[in-house]
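ok trying again, last paste got cut off:
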Amino acid sequence: MYARIALHLLRKLAAKPKTIWFGLVAILAVVIGVSALRARLDASSSVLVGRIWIDHLPKKDTEHFEVFVAIEDGAVGVFERASVYEGAFEVFKYEPKGDGRLELLFPQSKKKFDVTYEAKACRDGDFDYCLSLSGAPRGASKYVSKKGWELEAKDPAELERAIRGWEEKYVETAAD
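nice, full thing came through this time. structure:
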């Protein structure tokens, strides 16, 4: 859309003095750059949210692994450390701050943390997505995910049920 508008303006002003021409080229470059940056940020956010992220698949049933999930509905998520036999989790609320940043609020402790992230498609062994987190008080700094690990959850209880179902399907079979 921006490119079409800019092209229309450029055609109208092509006969004007060179200073106007160069000014428009500069404006066009900024508009295209901002549009590309916004698309990249939106893509990163869309990969981050609504997906199960793990630090690794355990090789045995007693091995602990880290899980990170954030869902769009209600802007909530969870950090979990678990094995097949035990686990601990903490729910958080988040607020996107743009530019790969989130503010996390942990309702239990009322503590807030500024977290930066980069979520993107990648190739890491059998995994299709990579996530880097920094500034989070829990979990790992690097996570991976696969196609098909998307999830729909409307509230924390539904999120917990979805994670339990995912663990039964993927983690227990990986540990066997």
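cool. The helical segments are 2-13, 18-48, 156-175. The chain has a mean pLDDT of 76.
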